[in-house]
Amino acid sequence: MDKLYLIEGDNEYLIEKELAKIIPKDTEVIEFDLEESSILDVIETLDTYDMFLKQKIVIAKNPNFYQNVDDNFPTNKYIKYLEHPSDNILIIITNKINNRLKLVKDTLKYFKKIEIKELNPITFIKENIKDYKMDNLTINYFINRVGNNYHEIYQELSKLKEYKLDDKIITKEDIENITKKNFDDTIFDLIDAILKKDKVKVFDLYNYFISNGTEVFQILVLLSNQIRLIYNVKVLNRLSDFEIASILDVKEYPVKLARGKGLKYSKKELLSILYSLAIMDEDIKSGKQIPSISLLSYIMQM
Q1: φ and ψ of 65, to 5 deg
Q2: What are the residue ranges of helices labelled H in the chain?
């Protein structure tokens, strides 16, 4: 088994499938966000042995040193470790690599590189329903209903396939009867659009929620809950998903999802949105603002 892996890609579901191939069951996994931790912390963890564990797996995400020049990066210590790695396993995950950087040229040769080839949701669905009939209009309806999260797509497809095991023909009515609406991806899209100050995208997503029967106040609550969860997970990033879920009294999967999504946002950005949402919430509850006007005003003033 290789000791050094570098995974390049940004599809969380496909990355997790690759990780499942690498990581043996019942193995301790320690994760680092390299935007908030040093590579020296990672190396120290890899070089530290536990008498009760045969092997540790360390996952390091957001290696900005593979995208931009960092004059303060401890290049010599990093290369020294790569030349003589411990028996523990290092997996570095990045959404892209700048192959022009000297550090990339000097260190890439030590890793087993895995490149994640992006699949669009339609291709992913078709690959998972090869023995079933589901036309393109139905597939698009399915995506609009359950979202673009590959975990959710797979789970909902599994339910549909079990439901239609006899005739193996999946219809729009089957989707409405069996699947559940999922707004998680749309909420994350909304957070992205707000942070990018993309008024058109925010307004489109606002209309999407309204057209699906979501009240304005519910949108604000969904936004606040997701952003608060992402922020708390970033604060507690040194802990495992299970430990964070226990502390926050939530299920483990939303923590895993928030951890991945949180890599895109800084704590300062998240707190800024939370502050704005808190002001809107106070104004609405005190009767100073009508919910729809409050949110639309916020969109226009971004």
Answers
A1: -70, -10
A2: 12-22, 39-47, 75-83, 102-107, 121-128, 136-146, 150-163, 172-178, 184-195, 199-211, 216-235, 241-248, 252-262, 267-285, 291-301
- Record the tokens describing residue 35, joined without a space: 């935007």
DSSP letters, 97-145, are --TTSHHHHHHGGGSEEEE-----HHHHHHHH-TTSB--HHHHHHHHHH
Q: What's 30's DSSP letter?
A: E
User: Residue 61 forms beta bridges with which residues?
Assistant: 33, 93
264 secondary structure, DSSP code: T
How would you write 195-212 as a 3-class SS string? HCCCHHHHHHHHHHHHHC
φ, ψ for residue 120, nearest 5 deg? -80, 160
Distance from C-alpha of 8 to C-alpha of 18, rounded to nearest angstrom: 11
Buried b (16+ CB within 10 A) or exposed e, 47-80: eeeeeeeeebbbbbbbbebbeeeeeebebeebee
- Where do we find the tokens 């916020």? 298
DSSP state of 169: B
Between helix 199-211 and helix 184-195 the angle, nearest 10°, is 150
Q: What are phi and psi of 115, to 5 degrees?
A: -100, 120
Low-confidence ranges of the chain (pLDDT < 50): none
- 82 near 93, Cβ under 8 Å? no
178: tokens are 């069996």
Per-residue pLDDT tens for 195-212?
778 888 888 888 878 877
